Amino acid sequence: MDFRRWDDIREDLTALYRDLHAHPELSFQEHRTAAEVARRLGELGLEVTTGVGGTGVVGVLRNGAGPTVLLRADFDALPVEERTGLDYASTERATASDGSDVPVMHACGHDMHVTCLIGALDLLVSARASWSGTVLAVFQPAEEIGAGARAMLDDGLLERFPRPDVCLGQHVFPFQSGFVGMMRGPSMSAADSLKITMFGRGGHGSQPQNAVDPVVMASATVLRLQTVVSREVAGDDTAVVTVGSIRAGTQGNIIPDRAELLVNVRSFDERVRERVLAAIRRIVRAEAVASGADREPEFEQLNRFPLLVNDPDATDRTASALRAALGEHAVLDLPPAMASEDVGLFGTEAGVPTCYWFFGGTDPGRFQKALAEDSVARSIPANHSPHFAPEIEPTLTTGVKALVTATLTWLT
Amino acid sequence: MDFRRWDDIREDLTALYRDLHAHPELSFQEHRTAAEVARRLGELGLEVTTGVGGTGVVGVLRNGAGPTVLLRADFDALPVEERTGLDYASTERATASDGSDVPVMHACGHDMHVTCLIGALDLLVSARASWSGTVLAVFQPAEEIGAGARAMLDDGLLERFPRPDVCLGQHVFPFQSGFVGMMRGPSMSAADSLKITMFGRGGHGSQPQNAVDPVVMASATVLRLQTVVSREVAGDDTAVVTVGSIRAGTQGNIIPDRAELLVNVRSFDERVRERVLAAIRRIVRAEAVASGADREPEFEQLNRFPLLVNDPDATDRTASALRAALGEHAVLDLPPAMASEDVGLFGTEAGVPTCYWFFGGTDPGRFQKALAEDSVARSIPANHSPHFAPEIEPTLTTGVKALVTATLTWLT
Amino acid sequence: MDFRRWDDIREDLTALYRDLHAHPELSFQEHRTAAEVARRLGELGLEVTTGVGGTGVVGVLRNGAGPTVLLRADFDALPVEERTGLDYASTERATASDGSDVPVMHACGHDMHVTCLIGALDLLVSARASWSGTVLAVFQPAEEIGAGARAMLDDGLLERFPRPDVCLGQHVFPFQSGFVGMMRGPSMSAADSLKITMFGRGGHGSQPQNAVDPVVMASATVLRLQTVVSREVAGDDTAVVTVGSIRAGTQGNIIPDRAELLVNVRSFDERVRERVLAAIRRIVRAEAVASGADREPEFEQLNRFPLLVNDPDATDRTASALRAALGEHAVLDLPPAMASEDVGLFGTEAGVPTCYWFFGGTDPGRFQKALAEDSVARSIPANHSPHFAPEIEPTLTTGVKALVTATLTWLT
Amino acid sequence: MDFRRWDDIREDLTALYRDLHAHPELSFQEHRTAAEVARRLGELGLEVTTGVGGTGVVGVLRNGAGPTVLLRADFDALPVEERTGLDYASTERATASDGSDVPVMHACGHDMHVTCLIGALDLLVSARASWSGTVLAVFQPAEEIGAGARAMLDDGLLERFPRPDVCLGQHVFPFQSGFVGMMRGPSMSAADSLKITMFGRGGHGSQPQNAVDPVVMASATVLRLQTVVSREVAGDDTAVVTVGSIRAGTQGNIIPDRAELLVNVRSFDERVRERVLAAIRRIVRAEAVASGADREPEFEQLNRFPLLVNDPDATDRTASALRAALGEHAVLDLPPAMASEDVGLFGTEAGVPTCYWFFGGTDPGRFQKALAEDSVARSIPANHSPHFAPEIEPTLTTGVKALVTATLTWLT
């Protein structure tokens, strides 16, 4: 593959990245992003369909006989207030699904994913003489809430468009820019998000004997939930249970009537997952009883990310190609990640292999310094941090090359 | 005292009560209420001063030689959403001190206190031939946040107006309407409200090892705070420690960087109070250390209500007069209450006796039924409940008569 | 009353006290003590019955017409290892009811109670010309486990011996020797002792996922039990819930299959008591469920002490007599005590008044110094401490005089 | 290798196994066992040294030039009460190191290890014509407390006897008898056992305000320790923290002055281990502060097992030989085990490879049934269970053959 065309378009794509970064949109609200994507796909000559699964955009690049490769980029942002200090930092706000006004930031790099895929499509269009087959470009909404892949599939993605033979995708991650990282087999954790409401009985703060205190109830529950991982998951199994939010009451002298917990569960094994979820329910219910609650707690599944399994053969094949294109040492073998993604649904539902990789986003000098100081976890802002800001280069170039290279592995 | 005039004004005052109830205002925002009070005091011929300690109103009724009796009514409301279903229920909202938009309700009966005092002043004006001395009517803002009495005193209440010889006041309470209840000696608890902020280190919900989880930290703290009362306060001492609010995080999969607790402490003894407050600080700090926090917790005293001590002699004298006026059985001896009030500051600061009593607000039939079913605590809405709604009569009549009678005890 | 005889017998009784102190016996094992008591009662000419309610001893001193006064002294000791350093300190050991070998100590002063009652009986015998009626001397076993009074009553105490008209008794306490303290009305708390066994499922310490960990279960229960007092007992009610013992496991690397809690509950009101006991059961059961226990916890009531109510009239009458005999300032009015006693059962069962008082056991100089330093609670060893050691004088003299004086109040 | 001799000695060794099983001895008390071992080694013609590292026995079998293979069998038992119901079950009791009288049981199969090694030595002696080199038979005391290997090394094992070129050993485990299981690389967890003493201030159960309650302190600590694994160990790292024992107090109504925790920590990585141990110390100290303790907690390291790392090459070589001897399917690849062993110290200290494997002890029919019912963890008694009882055959035969085969891999 000849990457000279890249030099011609890099500046334009850098501008696109900065523009997307400055204008992040929440899950299922990606109207501006979708319009920009559709416009550019149209300019590249793809068949473009918008509104797939809400705000999703699908582009089809047909180029003769051959397999169909699904390339996926997610494009939603997060309710995080950007503190990167970049000149293209976001100052956007939006209305969250609960009606509240929140800041918005591309704190997970989906702007980079979109830019890389647009760039890769441009190169593939330019080089169409050198390959044959079909590229199915999937710009997915609402990855952050685990709902976008499901929505696109439910909206007929596999029926309305060429059926893929393999699903490829990538995610920017806080390791050294210029490198890609491959995972083989079970690669990214399943994730379940639950909203748990526990009911007490409100009252005056000075009369606890006439109330059932949901603050104590919820606090005892949070402590007890720590035992799920410490006592019910084997040391050599993997699970994480995080109560990311606890909310009850508004004043010190009023005992509120309920408390709300938001719980996130990560797992790599369906049996472990089921045991953990059952233990959470058991503990929550028992702690309500311990407090003398009059009413059963309520559980709401907010979202569910599937386990991502990278097909070993597809991964080996992709890794070989990336090694040839990026250099032997630029391709890392990574262990499974405790992060979650809904990208796996496409391949699972289509019954075809998935290969999904990470590409580094951290300035090489900064990363090497942090490594030397053993401070990576502390000093390199990770995804979802208000300070998360991929170095544009060589991140963008690497992401574009990786996508093109991986695609051509299947189409030449 | 001849209460026939009462029949002439009762209808008007009932309308005033309904109007005040429908238009509650938060602490230090009582502009409409203050204007209405000032207007009526002016009509009654009192010397009126507004803006005392923010929104407070002082009326002076001079009637010859004799002692000065301070009569106090508080007039602020609460950020509670009214659910009484009354035709004069509040639908007001206001901006709280933290900038949030909140519902407002007279959920503690201060509208009744204002109405009774206006009525009592009208009767005292009408009957001025039968007594001599001075009545100092104090309409106090911001009782709910323990700040109004302090503000009025700091604004020169004792210097700018006739200095009281005794301080009287009353509060409507969820016992049988038509009755008053007297407490002798230490009568209403001291109350301290604290805001505690505990600092963790935020991170991704799947990477707790790189974070310090403030949800766990705060939950462990709440449980440990239960030991203050259970282990550090003697069985025969009195203290209540309530964590009325716990707040941390917004999503299940993000570990937040801090948690906030609102704590309310009730006590009847300065040594117990100090031990409890010291224990809270010790536990909060130690639990932060246990979690590996990088930063010390922060403590902010939101408000502080003093212990209310009813002067025994003044109380006995008032009780006798009330028995004569309302009937022997209508005056109850009550034990100290776990509620708090800043009314005691006036007498303490002036160095004169205080007598503060409760008057019932619950429909007699309903109250007797609840008594018979042993369900008072469960079935009668207490102060601060969204269902708190005094029966207008005989509550209003009783409150007016009690105020007039008690005042004349000192002025005839 | 002429107390000159006291000078003749004091030395002998001091020797008796030292001997009893050096030879303490556990509840229902007081064979040596009972034999010595019986021998001395016989020498004084009383009708003596041994083996009443196990090891109890009853002496009857008939002296003509008149009322019958029951005088009660308890005589069992505690499984505490004495650390007083006294030359007559106990080095005894005994087999506890659970089969274990334990140290034994008169750490609650029952040796003093016995000595005082023997001394008082001697004086009453010597002075029989000056009074008439009957003295029923009750030497009770097993007060420490709340079982001895019940056992003597069940063994026919009220039927086999003269029926009392009043029940008197006294207890040495860590206030100034030479003083007595009177309580009126509800005076000593009810106490319930429970043994709670919680069942987990044992396993290897490295495989918690295959076990149900009773150490975590019991620990969570202990923390949750703190909420009974902090949240379910009103601030102005009185209750204490103490988990005095927690036991589970023998090694770090084996998860045991059960945990045992010993819980003690103090209360002054039957409704509070019932609510507390119900809350304990509710919490223990719910925490077992939270842990996923296969088996319900078990509850065993180890003992139960009744509330002690001092008859107001009998107390006033006794207090007046003691003031006359010991000095106006030597008789203190004490608030109710959080300690418990089964002495009240005698009067309750007989339907006659009880008057039970405390007498000081601490060296006056030491006590005044501690008072001045505000260190009484910390520096004066209390009952049940391994350092508890009443100063023999003036404690013994005061106890004897108090008993004789109180008795004669009813018999002259 | 010709195993026909095995048929001649099997009956005798079965009798030896039964005898050892019936006469278990605690760590460093293995006098009877050591004597029996020494006697038999002497009969086989080995050079025998007793008292190595306390009760250890070393036998040297020299057979010409060649490498030295260290074969290790541990021989101590556990303070567990046997409930197998076997006719050769132990009824032994012994005095534990804390002076208590405890039951003793070979609940970890060391009796089987000894028997297999004696059997293997017999076969090696018989077949000395077919191999050359030296066998160093190490019968190690006190494996259960992680002290025996250390003691033998400190007593000059590597200096006083032929220096090994490889260290081999095996452990019976609750999988199917007839099978062996190999682990490669980090194979058995490091284990640290700590005794933690937390100090409160004792007092009467009714006066918690004058005490510092160590039961609450220790219980809060146990709950907080659950957060070490749930919050401070990454989901994909491995650690187990078990509080196997909590002990405080003897009675419900006495607040004790201290509590004791026995904690066991498993880890596979020195950084994780250090973080976990530091977190435990931090939490214990902070919880003491939270309780207002006057005295710092005390930490005592009871024992420490090193991480066992099986040399990959040595393991592959041994596995191949075992496959040839026992059948292709009888050799399993096992994942790392959460169990711990001090066997690794020999190789680590000598700087030579270690290969340590498991051999199954469960009756094949029973195991297959449990597998089919998915009840292995629940229905097959594991090591340290009072029901742990290896099926003698084919366990014994497999263990002997495995040892001989592995040894000859290095000596032929």
TrEMBL record, chains A, B, C, D:
Organism this protein belongs to: Saccharopolyspora flava
Keyword Amino-acid biosynthesis: no
Cofactor note: The Mn(2+) ion enhances activity.
Tagged with keyword Disulfide bond: no
Cofactor(s), by name: Mn(2+)
InterPro entries: Amidohydrolase, Bact_exopeptidase_dim_dom, Peptidase_M20, Peptidase_M20_dimer
Domain of life: Bacteria
PANTHER family according to UniProt: METALLOPEPTIDASE, PUTATIVE (AFU_ORTHOLOGUE AFUA_6G09600)-RELATED, PEPTIDASE M20 FAMILY MEMBER
GO-annotated molecular function: metal ion binding; N-acetyldiaminopimelate deacetylase activity
Domain Peptidase M20 dimerisation: 193-289
Keywords: Hydrolase, Manganese, Metal-binding
Name of the protein in its database record: Hippurate hydrolase
Binding site for Mn(2+): C108, H110, E144, H171, H384
GO biological process: diaminopimelate biosynthetic process
